[in-house]
Every structure is written in structure tokens, then in C-alpha cells.
Amino acid sequence: MQTVTTHAGANLVIGGRALHTRQRVGRSRGQLDALPRNVSQHRRFPIGTYRGLRFGLTLHPQFPPEVYLEGAATRLGHPLS
Question: In whole angstroms, what is the distance from residue 12 CA to residue 39 CA?
């Protein structure tokens, strides 16, 4: 919580570029389209940072992808379909 509070005014950063609200959807779409559709082993793909926390996708060979959010601890969850 301290990291999120400290970075409350920070922009979303994807691929090293700070994005403003209107740019978010288009830029993140390109980053996601570049990910492989299938993987033969567990692979983690960092995407960017939000409020000082790193986030990305973890792809699995036989399971749906997971979104991760990482700071002092890591949280995992399945993206909405």
C-alpha cells in the first residue's frame, strides 16, 4: 500500500513509455498482441508498471494466462474473458 500511495499520481508505463489515459488502450493492445499464443513451458512476460508496481502476464502451456502485480509481494489472478 505504501508504494501505491507514494506513486498515486504516476502514469501507467508500458514498454518503458509513460501513457496518458487516452493512449492506454491502444498501446497496451499492441504489447499484448506481441505475446506468443502458445508456450511449451511456464513463461512470465513483464508489461509495465502501475503506481510503482510491476505487472505482466504469466503464460502456461495448458492453463489460461494469469495477470501478476508485483511489489513487496506478488498477486496473481486470471484476466476477465
Answer: 27
Rounded to the nearest angstrom, the gap between the alpha carbon of residue 61 and the centroid of all alpha carbons in its chain is 19
Task: Report residue 71: phi and psi, to 5°.
Answer: -140, -120
Taking the model in full, what pTM does it have?
0.66
* In contact, 67 and 52? CB cutoff 8 Å: no
CA–CA dist 53, 37 (Å, integer): 25
What is the CB neighbour count within 10 angstroms for residue 17? 12
- Residues 70 and 54: their CA atoms lie apart, in Å, by 5
Q: What is the pLDDT along the chain (81 residues), one digit of tens a residue?
A: 777 778 777 777 887 778 765 555 555 566 676 777 788 888 888 888 888 888 888 888 988 888 888 887 777 676 654
